[in-house]
Amino acid sequence: CGVFGVVGVTDAANFVALGLHALQHRGQEAGGIVAHDAEKGFNSAHRFGYVRDNFTKSSLMETLPGDLAIGHVRYSTAGSKAAVIRDIQPFFGEFSMGGAAVAHNGNLTNADALRRELIERGAIFQSSSDSECIIHLMARSIQRKHADRIADALRRVEGAFSIVAMTRTKLIGVRDPLGVRPLVMGRIGDNGYVLSSETCALDIIGAEFVREIDPGEMVVIQDGRIESSRPFGPSTGRFCIFEHVYFSRPDSIIGGRSVYETRRAIGVELAREAPVDADLVCPVPDSGTPAAIGFSQESGIPFALGITRNQYMGRTFIEPTEQIRNMGVRLKLNVNKSLIRGKRVILVDDSVVRGTTSRKIKDMILDAGAKEVHFRIASPPTAWPCFYGVDTPNRDKLLAAKMTEDEMRDWISVDSLKFISLGGLYRAVGEAEGRNNACPQYCDACFSGEYPITPSDQIEKGFEM
Ligand code: 5GP
Ligand code: SF4
Ligand code: MG
Hints:
The protein is of the alpha+beta class. The protein has two domains: 2-237, Aminohydrolase, N-terminal nucleophile (Ntn) domain (Glutamine Phosphoribosylpyrophosphate, subunit 1, domain 1); 258-437, Rossmann fold, CATH 3.40.50.2020. It is 31% helix and 25% strand. It contains 18 helices and 23 strands. It has a seven-stranded antiparallel sheet. A six-stranded antiparallel sheet has the order 5-6-7-8-12-13, covered by helices on one side. The chain has a four-stranded parallel sheet with strand order 17-20-21-22, sandwiched between helices. The longest helix is centred in the middle third of the chain and has 15 residues, at 259-273. The radius of gyration is 22 Å and the shape is globular. It binds guanosine-5'-monophosphate (5GP), iron/sulfur cluster and magnesium ion. Residues 246, 284, 287, 316-317, 349-358, 390-392 line the site of guanosine-5'-monophosphate (5GP).
């Protein structure tokens, strides 16, 4: 998901709409905005579909006045996959000291247990979302300030959370102790501040990047002042390494480095680790493109756009059902036949999950007359599901959970298949010494199976680590 908030500008909701539009790659199912106006109070709108199709209409935006607003773009990982408007964030609650709204990116790993407990104690849940627990936990806190209630609530939850919240006067941001999902702060105008999942959404509204929110940090922004605290005590971050590979937008900056540059470096590393003689390096668009550029630069094999993507389709894997996902590949991608015919082609993609994409693309490339097909993958084999906010399927659907690299090559039926090593990926994201196995610098559970946060709901359902 993507979260965004702004305070200290007129018509804040319009800025939020633009920010969410820039974060649309993080969630395409639905979006919501809550705004606060001194006269008109809190107003909200929750809609299915793209931001641009909803939050551009003046008839809707006029209902969201005020100089403080937050928003969310949704991609369902927890909760119902069916389209239910009640699941769309931000969530709102009335408290004795006034209303507050919360938008959450990430996934809580003890939400099932918390929900059961809260329902037993009288909470009436409105949605199937794990994030709603936060509002109910806030309601049960005895603190007198919203921010303290949020901190109380977040000390009870486990999992990954980057939160943007608001009260009548405050914009609040929090990251979980490991800082699994991103959150950055920016400045706009004389007195305005912005919180956003990624820096690309600061650029769209002309905000200036200030800094990242630290893992385990809470910031409370009011009247142009920032108060920072550490509600969970000291912690060392373990950012999601897959944000670098796939999830974030290539023009965003993470840890002072452009995501594009990191992805290009992954391609360079991959070309060193798994070279192969061929005529063309083609990206699987769009997520494989920067890595393919790096691969081509390092290997000297010409880069070519052998596959064209229909720009009007969403990202395949973000489509919520398997059926739509399966159709998606052909609706979305097409091979440039005259370029591919008779060639030995290296295809670079960011990841292999179920393997369905790779298999279909291989068919398309062979139909176009390619002589050889070699897959190079910009992440290690995805052998474990993510429980922290990326929608990977159950373990039994993950190709790499069932097969060795050679078996995957035979199953996809290509001339060669190689994944970047975990160490190589760490070097590419800027860790010159590679992975510190005693104390890994990133979350890489989907590749290593080492879960930095115990997925307790999943374990209760029978998941074996
Ligand atoms: P597959 O067809 O192997 O299941 O999906 C691989 C494709 O989905 C890749 O091209 C990649 O861009 C995209 N993808 C990236 N991350 C994920 C993920 O976490 N889950 C799924 N299902 N697909 C992903
Ligand atoms: Fe990111 Fe993978 Fe960790 Fe999920 S399991 S947070 S996708 S590195
Ligand atoms: Mg892809």
